[in-house]
């Protein structure tokens, strides 16, 4: 395993680095990194529906779309991020417990009763301090998560404007009560970088073959190119969210929230786009393309959807909950 260190706090570069490392490093990797104030949205989300646009603009908060699914998260220098990339032959590639267990182990060794709850969250006393997401590329897994250590919680609450269909009863105050900083629960004083050292030391001990790796000049050049041409562009971060004239949000039992957007002309679907905090092994764009050009009616939509194994595109999806979302 390679322990990859990078000191930049540029969110565009750091998110680009994840794609580069996933696709160009054969060995398994682990990295700890931080971003300046930014909002990182899930690949399938409608960016404008997730952020407080005025607050983001006034406070010069960067907005970046990542490769993985899941929901939007707020980063600042008090938030520590961790990333694993790993080759796998397992059919169960989406395994949040596997990659979050080292974090729980470190905290429990420090006397903190941290727990795994829900689909992909880590909590202390019922309050969330870590959200996690995954992306599958070929036979490789990218797992990354946030660790709120000493973040500015008021900034987090103000910057994120969650989909009202999912958080209709959540105000800024209630959001603030749902999350917590790790630092508040430690029995000893330490800063975020000392905490990072604790995690890195633990990972090295758990992986005898682990060794440090510094990004080379060539690595940095390629990541910078990917940053400039993709992750720092409006087309990727905002333009990826299409215009539409039909929108319906469905909260499913197993897959989370799925927002279905359709552009319909003369009763025929011209364009389909899925947003939400769902996860899948295969890219849901395949289903979007298959639905384009068919009539916007139940039987036509159902026939197309029945030709796919939906559980591979939307993990744990209940078909009967999904189809009504188109009407």
Task: Walk me through what this model shows.
This protein has 2 domains: 2-239, Bira Bifunctional Protein, Domain 2 (BirA Bifunctional Protein, domain 2, 2-Layer Sandwich), CATH 3.30.930; 246-326, Enolase-like, domain 1 (2-Layer Sandwich). The chain has 12 helices and 14 strands. Helix 1 (11-24) crosses helix 8 and helix 5 packs across helix 6. With 327 residues, the protein is an alpha+beta fold.
Report strand %: 25-35%
Number of helices: 12
- Class from secondary-structure proportions: alpha+beta
CATH topology of the largest domain: BirA Bifunctional Protein, domain 2
Just name the CATH architecture of the largest domain.
Answer: 2-Layer Sandwich
Model regions low in confidence, pLDDT < 50 over at least 5 residues:
165-177
The tally of strands reads 14
> Which sheet architecture does the biggest sheet show?
8 strands, mixed
What is the arithmetic mean of pLDDT? 89
Helical residue percent band? 25-40%
Radius of gyration in whole Å, from Cα? 20 Å
Query: What would you give as the CATH superfamily of the largest domain?
Result: Bira Bifunctional Protein, Domain 2
């Amino acid at each position: 395993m390679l322990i990859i260190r990078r000191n930049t706090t540029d969110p565009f570069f750091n998110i680009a680095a994840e794609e580069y490392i996933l696709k160009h490093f054969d060995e398994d990797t682990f990295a700890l990194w931080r971003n300046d104030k930014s909002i990182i949205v899930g690949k399938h989300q409608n960016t404008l529906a997730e952020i407080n646009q005025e607050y983001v603009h006034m406070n010069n908060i960067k907005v970046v779309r990542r490769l993985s699914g899941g929901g939007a998260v707020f980063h600042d220098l008090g938030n520590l991020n961790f990333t694993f990339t790993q080759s796998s032959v397992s059919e169960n590639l989406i395994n949040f417990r596997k990659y979050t267990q080292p974090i729980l182990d470190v905290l429990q060794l420090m006397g903190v009763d941290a727990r795994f709850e829900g689909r992909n969250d880590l909590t202390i006393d019922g309050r969330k301090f870590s959200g996690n997401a995954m992306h599958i590329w070929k036979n490789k897994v990218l797992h990354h998560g946030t660790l709120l250590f000493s973040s500015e919680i008021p900034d987090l609450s103000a910057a994120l404007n969650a989909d009202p269909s999912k958080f209709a009863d959540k105000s800024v105050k209630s959001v603030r009560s749902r999350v917590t900083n790790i630092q508040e629960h430690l029995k000893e004083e330490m800063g975020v970088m000392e905490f990072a050292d604790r995690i890195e030391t633990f990972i090295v001990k758990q992986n005898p073959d682990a060794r440090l790796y510094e990004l080379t000049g060539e690595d940095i050049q390629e990541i910078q190119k990917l940053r400039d041409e993709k992750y720092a562009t409006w087309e990727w971060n905002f333009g990826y969210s299409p215009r539409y004239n039909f929108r319906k949000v469905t909260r499913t039992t197993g897959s989370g929230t799925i927002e279905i957007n359709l552009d319909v002309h003369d009763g025929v679907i011209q364009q389909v786009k899925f947003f939400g905090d769902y996860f899948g092994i295969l890219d849901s764009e395949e289903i979007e393309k298959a639905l384009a050009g068919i009539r916007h009616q139940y039987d036509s939509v159902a026939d197309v959807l029945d030709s796919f194994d939906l559980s591979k595109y939307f993990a744990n999806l209940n078909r009967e909950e999904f189809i009504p979302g188109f009407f």
